[in-house]
Amino acid sequence: MDKRSKFSYRYSGYCVLLGCLVLLCLARPVAAQQAVVIRSSDFGEHNQVFLDDSVWYYHPGELPGGNKPAINTSGWDTLRHTIFGKINAPRRWQGIGWFGLWVRADTGLVNKKLFISINHDGASELFLDGKPIGGYGKVGKSAQQTEAIRAPRELIPVWFTDTRPHLLAIHYANFFNVYSNFSGFQLTIGDYVTRAKRAGNSKMLLDYLPMFASAQLILGLLHFLFFLFYPRQKLNAYYALFVLLIGINGIAVHSFYLTPYPTVQYFADFITAVCKVLIMCSAVILLYVLNYSRVPRWRIIVLTGVAVFYLGGYIFKYWVLRQETWHNYFSVVYVICMADGLWSAVQVIKRGQKNAWLIGAGVSAVILVYIFAWEDTFLVWPYALNSMRLFVMGAGSLILPLCLSLYLALDFARTNQKLAAKLREVEILSARSLAQEAEKTALIATEARRLEQIVQQRTAELKAQTEELREMDAIKSRFFTNITHEFKTPLTLILNPAKELLNTPAGDKDYLKLIIRNAERLMQLINQLLDLSKVESGLMEVNPALVDLVALLKLHVLSYQSLALQKGIALHFTTEQETLWMLIDRDKMEKIIHNLLSNALKFTDNGSVEVALCNHPEAAGNSFSLIVKDTGTGIPANKLPYIFTRFYQADPSDTRNTGGTGIGLSLTKELVELMGGQISAESVEGSFTQVKIVMPYQPAAAPPENSAGPVTVEEFIPVTCEEDVLAADKSCPLILLIEDHQELREFIRKSLAGRYRLITAADGPEGVAMGIQHIPDLVITDLMMPGLTGYQVTETLKKDERTSHIPVIILTAKAGIDNRIQGIETGADAYLTKPFEQRELIAQIENLISVREQLRIHYKNSDLWLKNTSELPSIEQDFIARIRHAVESHLNEEGYSADQLAVDMGLSRTQLHRKLKDVLGQAPGELIRVVRLQYAYNLLERRAATVSEVAYMVGFGSPASFSASFSRHFGFAPSKVAVSGS
């Protein structure tokens, strides 16, 4: 082989090697990127796969090589979501960029016709392996050069000839941000044939919307012409407005889904939002006009207020804030307003107006169409049936116009018939004398006045019924609030002790007693509700049994003796005879006695409770009278007639001294009347209350002496103080607990003992006084308490500069969002609902105290006298400013001490000390010294005087003590300040 041949051979080898390296480099980016595998099994019921949440590669702006399509994604950023807005836009996104996705088809999709669909509000160019396959709009480098087009229902056909990874690159621009949360795009891929067929069906259904809208516009214009020819019939004008609005809304909905222009879609979205408000108002007004001869002014005011609120809100949302979401609860308002309109239609039907049922049917259909189709409140329509939902919405919106048109047509025909009859009658009556005409006129006027009186009477009756219903609704709302509170407090005292028992090896009998007492309280409440339900449904039966009423009363009075002793009340029972055997329902009689005794003791704080049993001679036959009289708070005269009303409470406020549900006396009255008796009450507010029962009975002979006697009742077990609870060390944080429920207060005290020092108060005023006196590290308060509510306690403490820094935790059974917001607005730092977890309460306490300690360390280490104090709350800033002014006013007085500073601040020495230690971590004396030294530093830095002069100016007795204090505080002698300043 000659040299040339060898050279050619070597050259060929080098070329082959170089070509392999080039192919390896070209294949390297593909292999290095993560490809998305497209499988037909992933298409699902929608015959497509969403790719916006895949592994994308992103390059902001233009590619280095110009506008050439991308063939690899080397060096590009990774991106997980292509649906982004202004807030979560990709890094360095300026409105234009390249997006790449490596896709690979499985063997079942090779050479099968697929589609790619892209949904966006900008402009796009799509490339597959560097070859253009489609796009929408015109991609430009600025907003002026870009033309935005949306085509969410357009399909781009695509085929994959192998199973290798292919690069799907998208050159995308969106400078407009029509929707602030949708600046990116959404990409899907799926089976072309199935999707194209479904898209065609969807398009066909959407094309019906303009037809429905046209029919509605024609009906509206027709009735508007009727109004022009007959202006006295204003119903045609309201009807025309209503139908025209429905037609405009149909056109806006059609434009929203099918327009290729994002700005038109945004405007159509705004129009549909406005139209649904106007449609609701016009429909309700139309129904009012049908029902009322003169629509009540308050209804017009309320409806106008609702319309103005929502129209203003939508204008502010779409054109000021430009936000997509607004939780405005319009569906609830819509249903309420339309239900009120339906009530007007029902009134028309009740008056016997012919064919008025058409109106009720139409209104009911509109409400159902709005709930199930327009808003889809119950999520009936899946994504694939959205076009069918819009078709049902468009067709359903025709029901009420058609019903009203038919009603108006029939009414018009009846009116014509009546007019014809009247004309014939007038022709006959015209031949009669003028006297008869005058008499007829007088009769007509009298009839008109009578009708007007009837209308006024019915209106007054409706108003009275409305007020009665509103009062009943308020009473029931208070009942449910009270019953929730009555349930949740015992539940707290059952769940937490039960959990404590699980965590302790040996059971604590006190915890068991606490659980049993509160479980019995819950059972009593539940039994009262069940008994009330049985009485109301007529299922309660009377089961007579042999009972010695005197012994039964003695047993119940004895069971309440312990509670009466606890409250310092004298409890007496008097009777005219030793025994009184009768046949009577023992269970119901025990419930009556229990309710009367518990009520009397509950509302009596001092004095006595008298129970008297005697025969009632005035009544026919055998009957007895039972009288329970107490010297308690009494009942106001205006509330006394309602005390036996179900759910009624004389004091429904959150600050009442006693709890309750409002069903005890109501149930007592039902049981007394069920057994043929009568119950009555007398009371003088602040003096006494007396309840008297007169009940017939069937006498019976006493049983033999060896027979079983009455069953004894359980002894009342008072709540005792826990003396064995560990006391916390004096260095532990001090916590103030304000809780009117004794058992819950004792349980929390026992739970926190050993960790914290604890002081307790039984009501709001006492808690505020103790908070100001002791300045605790944290306050725990109940919400519903006597004197002051938890909100008022929190607000009082937070507005007082002595206690404004103290964290507050509110405990309550009210778990509504409005209650939480009110608690936060009054300054509460935490809000726990009953029944609460003991661990959660302890965690909240530790967290709040820890945060307060970190703030205290931060402010102790920072120089608040030179730096801005804006980080502190305004009341703390004012407090520090007052202290600084007080100290600076006595700067040159050597004897100015912490006691004088406390007097100047209007606080005691203890209050000032705890306040400053909690807020700044410094004692008053230390704070005075720091202010003096800092003021001296400023004087020395400005060279305003010598070191000795400055020492006397800031209140030091000698330059030597000043120099020593200065050196300890700043770390250098005061003479060095003047030297460094020069």
Automatic annotation (TrEMBL):
Modified residues (4-aspartylphosphate): 782
InterPro entries found in the cross-reference section: 7TMR_DISM_rcpt_extracell_dom1 (IPR011623), CheY-like_superfamily (IPR011006), HATPase_C_sf (IPR036890), HATPase_dom (IPR003594), His_kinase_dom (IPR005467), HisK_dim/P_dom (IPR003661), HisK_dim/P_sf (IPR036097), Homeodomain-like_sf (IPR009057)
Pfam families in the record: 7TMR-DISM_7TM, HATPase_c, HisKA, HTH_18, Response_reg
Domain HTH araC/xylS-type: 881-980
Domain of life: Bacteria
Residues spanning the membrane: 208-230, 237-258, 270-289, 301-320, 326-343, 355-374, 390-410
Keyword annotations: Kinase, Membrane, Phosphoprotein, Transcription, Transcription regulation, Transferase, Transmembrane, Transmembrane helix
EC identifiers of the protein: 2.7.13.3
One MF term in the entry's GO annotations: sequence-specific DNA binding
Sequence ranges assigned to domain Histidine kinase in this UniProt record: 482-699
Domain Response regulatory stretches: 734-849
Reaction(s) the record says it catalyses: ATP + protein L-histidine = ADP + protein N-phospho-L-histidine
Segments forming a coiled coil: none
PANTHER family with a match to the protein in the record: HYBRID SIGNAL TRANSDUCTION HISTIDINE KINASE C (PTHR43547:SF2), TWO-COMPONENT HISTIDINE KINASE (PTHR43547)
Protein name (database record): histidine kinase
Organism per entry: Mucilaginibacter oryzae
